[in-house]
User: Fold these one by one.
Assistant:
Number 1:
Amino acid sequence: MTTPDRLAPSASPRLVSPSRATLLLLIVCLGSALLSLAPLGGIGAAFSELFTLHSSEPEALVLHYSWWPRLSMSLLAGGALALAGVLMQQVLRNPLAAPTTLGVASGANLALMVATLFAPGLLVLGREWVALTGGAAAMALVFALAWRRGLSPGVVVLGGLVVNLYFGALSVVLLLFNQESLSGLMVWGAGSLAQNGWGGVWYLLPRVVIAGLAAVWLMRPLALLELDDASARSLGVSLKWLRLGGLGLAIFITGCAVASVGIIGFIGLAAPNIVRLAGARRLGQRLLWSTLLGALLLATTDLLLQGLSGQLPTLIPTGATTAALGAPLLLWLIPRIRLAAQRPPMATQSLGHRYPLPWRRIGGFAVLLCVIAVISLVIGRSSDAMGQYHWQLTLSPEVLEWRWPRMLAAAGAGVLLAIAGTLIQRITANPMASPELLGISGGAAIGLIVAVFLVPGPSNLVLIAAGTLGALATLLLLVLLNARSGFQPERLLLCGVAITALFDAVRSIILAGGDPRGQQVIAWLSGSTYYVEPGSALIVVTTAILFALAVIPLSRWLDIMPLGAATSRALGIQVEKARLGLLILVAILTACATLVVGPLSFVGLLAPHMARMLGLARARFHLIGAGLIGAVLMVLADWLGRQLLFPQEIPAGLIASLIGGGYFMWGLRKL
Amino acid sequence: MKLICLTLSLVSTSIFAAPRIASLDWTLAETLIALEAPPIALAQVADYTSWVGEDVPAGVTDIGLRSQPNMELLAKLAPDTIILTPMFTNLVPKLQTIAPVVTYEFYRPDKPLWPQLESMTRRLGEQTGQQEQAEALIRNSEADIEALKDLLSDDQRPLLVVQFMDARHVRIFGKGSLYDASMQRLGLTNAWPEKPNAWGFNLVGIEQLAKFNDARLVIVEPRPVGVEEELERSGLWHQLGSVQRGDTLVLPPVWSFGGLPSARRFAHVLVDAMTTTTEAAHDDA
């Protein structure tokens, strides 16, 4: 990239050092510990109850069985996650890799849900083993996807994100239909450090120690990964096995921590980055200070939160809160992190051949869309007088009046997301870009959540307004944060990921509270055409068609921009202005679509990809093809969602991500 | 009338034919069934059975999720009225195209629950032409609980009513919850002093229970799998006053956000458990 990276801390490196940052945090941590001990009898009482219980007074019980184990657990888990973060970032050469972004946490979560519902006997053997198995399976899937490419960092991150989204979608399906039975897992999923004995600490401690020793043993070969692939290979290192070993160790640590205390976001991301910013360069330094800093970071947050949540009627899970607090810090960090100037190794050109007759292919898509649209209108399940459900072909207007608005809205949303996805993938020349990753969907969803919880009995109009406001606020934030770097693609995506993480955290906190309104939030967030009315369906479709027509004249920009900022400028494009304009367009498209199908759908990522893989290389054909594929996917997803579990409905956004994610993983394997 | 009626477009219900009602809410459905005017359609029938702990009469059609009832199916069933709670008001405009919609609100943080449940029951009685049954349900619930009260000795410990979410966290029910309303009627004290959320519960870690060593612990099932085993290993759990005395109670599932029938059921299972364990204690002595 030609835009110069502004290098990190403006403060002089003499003033800020890893040890000083850690010391400062240690002081804060001790201070909050003293504060939290005050109502329990102070520091003296605390130490006398540390190893043996001296009385059966409630204060003593809490100190011995809860306060100390909780503090130890937060230190251990924080340290473990930070250690895992350093390893992952080192292996993937990506400052934003983290334990939670590689599918491990969501794999563990899904495994626990499935076990709770279908094989509760397994949980008796130990929840941690179920969680570990799930996490390992998710990571194995990611490895399988990236194996052919020698576990190259970009492909691993992409695979991790996709597996994350895919497992996340599966979990939401389970949750939607079993909210009451799974409410305990919501607490776990949001990461709570509450302890009532020393068992958890004794489980985690030996594992973290062993993993730490292994990390020290692997340190020297891992340091070679800072070189580029060719130089490292010339030193006789098997990159594939080294990466496998490093990542495997990181997953083991993450799995143990996740099994003990649930999903704790952000520590594994933040601690290594803070240490790096504070001036730690060598791997050994980073491992040591990150682990200490991560431990203190989690312990301090948890102590402060315990003080706070005493005042509130609900439990505030620490894990989700660290994630929520972490997002702003991440947004602050992003402009200060030096990003590798190189692109992720897999650029668009590897995505398949160019098909010689694009119009014929587009015609094929259009015919397919019509066929699927008609099927979704006239075929469906219904009940007879006996209350039995069976398939029916119907043309009766009373039934069609319920179906057509949903079909149209699904198609419209598909087109909108597909175009937004095509634009963002072309602007950033990055096939893992999508509206979801830009954070705009997440912003719209935060707006919706706020409305559901603050406005008693909100109407759809209120919800739509709130969603739009959220999307616009996100856009404003993106513009403010990126104006100075000239909307440099990587930074933009990183900001988006941070905002999406904030949304995830807010969602987890709300669901963990166990409020019955959670069901409504899940229903909205999973992306359903359920709430569409004839009027809004027509608006969505019209908007989609208008935007599609408006975007086609921009295809010259889109053909050139993937070639890089320098080339684009040489060909007479004002890069900053073009990026800003396209960005606003993407934001509007995404906001409109999110309000219909929720923030989870894969379509914005998938449709442009499929169009590209099917040989539509020029921007104009790419846009039209992606739009049609997006519509096909969403209409199909909506229809299946309405029929599969009749009379219950699975939201179209979820089905789309299940179909789409499967296809995508298959495609990624071949990549 | 404490009830908010957002869209009151009640058709003049004929006194002769029972109206065909579709209910999106389990509490309203539970009350209707107790009034002998069961709804023709109900959301999430299977979950209703396991969480409310009662069977649904034959002939009730399942219309899918509470938050997203199946519109095609609902339109085909053509109910006279659709009833719901404010949680689902965003569905009202759509549902109104099928049938008039009536919204009932009874869980309100600012008002005591019992009178709210009574007026909700009366309104349902008026709506279904079952006024007598409604009055009878209100009377019987009170009389029933009054009779149960006599079975209890006066020197009862305060109670902590919890539902386990996992081995480390419980929902603890305070003022404004259905369980608390029942306990008040029974003359029992709720030991939990904190202000709960709008639904009458707090979500807390079990170390919070250590402060209430005098209180007797009441556990409402279902307990998630594995919780019992994990509690066996938990040091704190064994130190809790109630566990040490061995006077904890385990109750079968009762719908925690229910109406009068659930309140009555809770009183029954609670008093049953209290009297049998007390007798057992006496036998031991």
Number 2:
Amino acid sequence: MNNYLNDGFNMVTGLSMGNFEQEMPRDNTLSLKLAKQAGDNMNFNKCGYNGNSNPNNLYDIYNGFIRGNMFPDLYNQYKIAKPFDVRPMNEQAELLTKVDAYCFAAHDVALYLDTHPNDQEMIRLYDSLNGEVKKVTKEYENKFGPLLKNGATGYPWTWNNSPWPWEK
Amino acid sequence: MWKYEKRLQYPVNIRKKNLKLAKCILTQYGGPAGELAAAWQYLDQRYNMPDDRGKALLTDIGTEEFAHVEIISAMLYQLMDGATIEELKEAGLDGQYAQFGRDLFPSDSFGNPFNMTYIKVSGDYIADIESDMGAEQRARATYEHLMDLTDDPDVLGPLSFLREREIIHYQRFKELRDYYLKMKK
């Protein structure tokens, strides 16, 4: 059905729609399997890929993020043959990419909900994504310092630590 | 109110300096189809939306556009980082350097400063949303032109991400417009 998914991720959209109602699973067996099928250069695990969150056949967290679009039926590519992988260069960048990816998914679903406020299934997905956002943000902040100012606690003052977002 | 989050919406890691490309990308900062114009346009229009859907959507997309201003700014910073005076001259950025040094300044690719008349507001919510749909399409086209001008994957990644956001925003504005037209009947 989704012929734009011709780059090895087809299996993702075949998952049943109710699955996301379960707790987001902690183990990443499925993502490991998919990563293997898609080739070693796919950073599925690194970005907290979760194959079970696909109501209405959305992209998974990582593939939605690298495309800038969670909705396969709206995806349309220009020039490049397939979306570029994000390649974090260290542990901090890797964890930040995870935050980026979950925040992006939640945001893209939120824009959908602005024009479809009665879609209960998508509201449940938003709630679960939002839970993940909070979790990964906390995980990042505990290790590498605040993303939001209210994440800064204790001595020494950590808000003004590098790197800033625009720095390489 | 707004809160600052210390991360980009999409990461920017450009390894290769490219001043000519920076000059072209400048238009998505302060040009007519740029992110700054989009951000202000949507946030200015939201006060006159007829219901909560429109107020929410314009607030959310307007806010996202400011995150895009930051992505474009980071790209400009990294593309120009460490440029010598000679390199700036060669790329035709000597005028930019004379006026602003190495600071960012919102202008288009020709150096024309950002102009508030880029912002389309009309007091008519249908006309406003349709101008937003047009703004998204023009920005998408500009991103495609910019993608034509480079083969650097470090640059194509964020450009492609930003282009895709225009498609999503266009779709959501269109849904809002169609919903309001239906309500009017």
